[in-house]
Amino acid sequence: MIRHIVAVRFEQTVSMDTKAALFAELEELRHLVDGVLDFHVGANVSPETAVVHGYLDAFWFDFADARDAYLVHPAHQAIGAKLVASVQGGTDGIVVVDLKV
Fold first, then answer.
1. Which among 23, 25, 28, 43 has the fewest CB atoms less than 10 Å away?
2. What is the number of alpha carbons within 13 Å of residue 21 lying toward its C-beta?
3. pTM of this prediction?
4. Domain residue spans in the chain?
5. How many angstroms separate the Cα of 98 from the Cα of each of 12, 39, 58, 62, 89?
6. Interhelix angle for 16-32 vs 74-86, to 10°?
7. What is the pLDDT of residues 55-95, one digit of tens each?
8. Are the C-beta atoms of 82 and 14 separated by less than 8 Å?
């Protein structure tokens, strides 16, 4: 299984409603991409503020074997573009880590 973890540093002007809408679109990918096992989203509650670097929100997907199909899926591409447009510095406002679990 692959856990696809994404930390985001939203622009300060992005409202909670906008964040919620983006995360809802991401969650919908569970139903569009075969092999998605789970999806979670939440706030970064780390007390290590010196190394958080403004990445205050995160989400992750668990994939049985569908991570690569997810990456090229048109729905992922569309929500990914919206996400990039909402974070500080474009892709510099997103950190991705994929772990084998």
1. 43
2. 8
3. 0.91
4. 2-100
5. 27, 14, 13, 10, 22
6. 160
7. 999 999 999 887 778 888 898 999 999 999 999 999 999 99
8. no
